[in-house]
Design brief:
41% of the residues lie in helices and 21% in strands. The protein is an alpha+beta fold and 100 residues long. The chain has a domain of 68 residues: Ribosomal Protein L30, Chain: A. The chain is elongated.
């Protein structure tokens, strides 16, 4: 076993590709309550109360607010959760994804 006669050492490099990312953006509307937006941010996006308030104010004042950047599949799931929760509670809250 000690001999390495006729053996070739092959090095294989595997490049791990980072998953594609997407930003989740909440959009302002004239009907969804600020309290509901804060609750969505805390429950779905796991934001603290202070973070949720800050993002909600961006949505209210600027028309949109970024909830976070996630792998595409996670971002899509969160968008579905937002729309589903909003419909359950009778709000037209919408969000969109910006693919990076």
């Amino acid at each position: 076993m000690g001999g390495s006669q006729g053996e070739t050492l092959v090095t294989v490099e595997h490049k791990v590709k980072e998953p594609r990312q997407a930003k989740v953006i909440l959009l302002n509307d004239d009907y969804t309550s600020m309290e509901f937006v804060v609750r969505v941010l805390m429950e779905i996006f796991r934001k603290t109360g202070a973070e949720a308030e800050r993002i909600m104010l961006l949505v209210h004042e600027k028309g949109r607010g970024e909830c976070g950047t996630y792998p595409v599949e996670v971002a899509e799931t969160k968008a579905v959760q937002v729309h589903s929760k909003a419909r359950e509670e009778g709000f037209p809250l919408r969000c969109l994804l910006e693919y990076i």
